[in-house]
Design brief:
The structure is a single chain. The protein is of the alpha+beta class. The chain contains 2 helices and 12 strands.
């Protein structure tokens, strides 16, 4: 009976995450809804916009016949300024990556589709999937992302300058560690 009830329930719209202007990083890992499609098309209900209307959109996988995993999330810009952010899914992580089967990293997100506005553009990076996202003033946009693998351990929304500062700091840290390791190898 419970299985029948769960199959008959209507699809609920995704809840939108507000994107404040003064916040540099948002962790979206626990906000996303994970979905598995039966085929190469997924149909979802968008988050309600300013008009309160919930729409349905269908997104097709990049490869015909594929049955990828999907994530769905919505972002709201309730300010009167356009917001540009970077959606970042890191390839590598140390904590919780597993001792026996470590998470060595690979592309996490194949493609992202927006319910309205500009399609997120992929930026090339060696250590993360990065997509440029633009939110127009007063809009709520639902994003559907096709995953390359079912594992998506982390997903962040960065202000572009904050992400550049983070990567520059990490590069300096890696350089210091390599320098110390090199000195220790000499002695």
């Amino acid at each position: 009976m419970l299985v029948l009830f769960s199959l008959l329930r209507p699809a609920l719209a995704v809840e939108a995450q507000r994107v404040p202007l003064d916040v540099h990083v948002l962790d979206l890992t626990d906000v996303v809804e994970r979905n598995k499609a039966d085929g190469d098309v997924i149909q979802i209900s968008t988050a309600p916009g300013a008009d309160g209307i919930v729409r349905r959109i269908a997104v097709r996988a990049r490869e015909s016949g594929a049955r990828p995993d999907w994530i769905v999330f919505a972002l709201t810009n309730d300010s009167d300024e356009q917001i540009d952010r970077l959606l970042v899914a890191p390839f590598h992580r140390l904590i919780g990556s597993g001792v026996v089967w470590p998470d060595l990293g690979d592309r996490r997100i194949e493609a992202i589709t927006a319910s309205q506005g500009l399609r997120p553009e992929r930026e090339e990076a060696p250590d993360a999937d990065i997509f440029q996202i633009t939110l127009d003033p007063g809009t709520t946009v639902t994003f559907v992302a096709e995953l390359k693998s079912p594992n998506l351990p982390q997903l962040y929304l960065f202000e572009p300058e904050a992400y550049r500062q983070k990567t520059n700091g990490l590069t300096l840290y890696k350089g210091i560690i390599i320098g110390i390791a090199g000195l220790l190898a000499l002695f």
